[in-house]
Model the fold of this input.
Amino acid sequence: MAGLLRPNRATFERQPRALLAADPDRVRGFRGRLARPGARVVGMSWRSFQPSVRGYLQRKKSAPLASFMALSQRDDLRLVDLQYGDTAEERSQFAASGGRLERLEGLDLFNDIDGVLAAVEACDLVVTTSNVTAHFAGSLGKRTLLVYLRANQPFHYWTPDENGRSLWYPSIEIVTARDFGSWDKAFGRIDEILRA
Done:
């Protein structure tokens, strides 16, 4: 189906940066709750929830929340949970290990799509694995770092162009390499990018 809309790389030159827009009032409200002087607000999502018959894809596309630990310790970053689904146990373990992760209390990250879009837009950037959050961020034109291991993209739309960006979502930078055999190594690269 994708080949009907973009039959070759040249047709991506017309790809718009943004396809959706978030409710500006909700964006302002979330931004007011999240912004702190001297810290960038980083939305984060780490899992892809799949039916049990697609468990292989869930494992391939999901990182452990602990991968974000080093980022959460930086004073110049404020991590915000954009992960849909039941993650209470993971978040509890993360907090018990010293991880810092903000929640937008009252926001249903699964059913309130308009709210999720506003939360994404309220962030300065997003760091995510391959999941719905990545598509929302890309559709908004939000700067996004999308990570996967071993340069082995989960789906065709995360194949990077010559500048390391998604062809389908120009605001998404693909963070991967053949020698990224562990999430620690991949997130070490993200840490470098955010320090640059």
Observations:
- The longest strand covers residues 40-45.
- Helices lie at 2-5, 24-34, 55-61, 69-72, 88-96, 113-122, 132-140, 183-195.
- The chain has eight helices and five strands.
